[in-house]
Amino acid sequence: MALMCRLIAGSLLALSLQSVPAAAQYPNKPITVIVPFAAGGPTDVVARLVGDHMSRTLGQTLVVENVGGAGGTLGMIRAVQAQPDGYTIAVGNMGTQSAAPALYPNLKYDPAKSFAQVGIVNYTPQAIVAKKDTAAKTLKEFIDYLKAHNTKLTYGHAGVGSISHVSGLVFNAKFGLTPNLVPYRGTGPAIRDLVGGVIDYMVDQSLNVIPQIQAGTIKVYAIAAPERLSSLPDVPTTGEGGVDFIFSAWNAMVAPKGTPKEIVAMLADALGKALDDPTIQKRYVELGSSAPKSAERGPAGLQKLVESEVARITPVIKAAGVTAESQ
Ligand code: MLT
Fold it and tell me: Looking at the domain assignment, is residue 8 inside a domain?
């Protein structure tokens, strides 16, 4: 019995000696942030924005690595399989962290169980946008146009399970629309093709489309939120346009499961400091985004959001009868 106690005490001491110095010295080299979509898109923009601030708090550079493909799931698989030492983290989104399991039955991660949650990064409503020369003037006219030309039209998205894919699925199903779906590695390149008139329309994060709307290179019909955005005061909400369609996106920072708690806490604290910075808050407002309230921040807030979003979105996808293969 005495020997057993000594062995247990010895193992506990060894464990604490392993994790305490790792956290005490953290971070002593650059941290890789996997962005599971193409550069220049909404996840990339927000990851670089908060990552730059976090670099200053942590005293080490956060280096973004874009690993796009399969609606962001390829990048998140890379993150889940990385060493849980705090030197590889990821910024996923509502698609990768809540919609993907319903679309990929053999997905190699469970958003609620396979990660050490760090925190919610931002919320952003979706916007209904079309190529610049689309003639419709109002949301109702636009929907009539979509119905009239249906299968001749193209809808761009960031891969099966991405936010633009799922929000488009819900929007298109609502009006019986079956456009040709064009997948990209992120909505950064998809928006470039919308500007170029290569694709016809998208439902995409306001964060990604506001610069183009302001530049007049694409047309916007509505913001899918209960309130107008202060950065687009003249753009009506879907409700004002007479359509019942609200869709809010979010981004989340995660680390591989097993990352020491002290390190996760340091990352969450650095993320919180970024979210409190007035410069970042101003940029969020310009991009139509908002930061999580204090009570929603940190690992517990994100865990709660992931669980509730998986529960909310899974039946919507199942009801649409869609899988990755059918898209
Ligand atoms: C991106 O960063 O490209 C987007 O967040 C993709 C999406 O989920 O629609």
Answer: no
Q: How many CB atoms lie within 10 A of CB 146?
A: 23
Residue 183 included in any domain = yes
188 lines ligand 1 (CB under 6 A): yes
CA distances in angstroms from 175 to 75, 178, 179, 327, listed in the order given: 32, 9, 11, 18
Say if 232 falls within a structural domain.
no
- In this structure, the answer to whether residues 136 and 157 fall within a common structural domain is yes
Which residue from 273, 243, 267 is spatially nearest to 119, judged by alpha carbons?
Answer: 267
pLDDT one-digit tens code per residue, 107-138: 999 999 999 999 999 999 999 999 999 999 99
Atom of ligand 1 nearest to the CA of 94: 8
Is residue 206 lining ligand 1, measured as CB closer than 6 Å?
Answer: no
66 lines ligand 1 (CB under 6 A): no
* Cα 216 to averaged position of ligand 1 atoms, centre (Å): 22
Q: For residues 116 and 310, what is the distance between their CA atoms, to the nearest angstrom?
A: 17
- Amino acid letter for position 146: L
3 state SS of 236: coil
Q: What is the pLDDT of residues 290-319, one digit of tens each?
A: 999 999 999 999 999 999 999 999 998 888
Enclosing domain of residue 75 = 30-123+250-326
Q: 114 and 34 in one domain?
A: yes
Do 105 and 144 lie in one domain? The reply is no
Q: How far is the CA of 209 from the centre of ligand 1 (A)?
A: 12
CA pair distance 121, 152, nearest whole angstrom? 37
Residue 203 C-alpha to ligand 1 middle, in angstroms?
Answer: 11
